[in-house]
Specification:
Blueprint (H helix, E strand, L loop, with lengths): L3 E6 L4 H15 L4 H4 L9 E6 L2 E10 L4 E9 L8 H15 L4 E7 L3 H6 L3 E9 L2 E9 L11
Parallel strand pairs: 4-5
Antiparallel strand pairs: 1-2, 2-3, 3-4, 5-7, 6-7
Amino acid sequence: MTEITVKVVDWEDYPVIEIIRRRVFQDEQKVNVESDFDGKDRACPQLIAYLDNVVVGTARIRYLDRKTAKIERLAVLSYARGKGIGKRIMQKALEVIASENIPEVTINAQEYIKKLHQQLGFEQVGEVFQEAGIAHVKMVKRLNVKGQSCNNY
């Protein structure tokens, strides 16, 4: 039986995050390194996904303001895709954001995986756009957080 776990990690774990992102974004998708490593990682909570205790995925959470968080840099190594790891990373990120009482989450999802995000309650906002040469869509999800209604913040 395969076991997937996702953890919020300390900055000391950044080297393994960098390896995953380089393999997925630079090597596979040919994203410019400066577009990926934008200098914002140190200030962002980072998540690492493990498949049977082996690191296979990552994402970061960036708090835009007191009402909005953005999940970024979701990456899963190619051999581990199709096992629900991306979904588990997103679920953990949403839990972390909800625990901070942030009512809205936004993502710039690569268009080909927007259905994954729709399964998690994200809705597309606007048209398809290019980011780092890849088709993306902006998606938003409103969270029910303690003491706040999604429509009244």
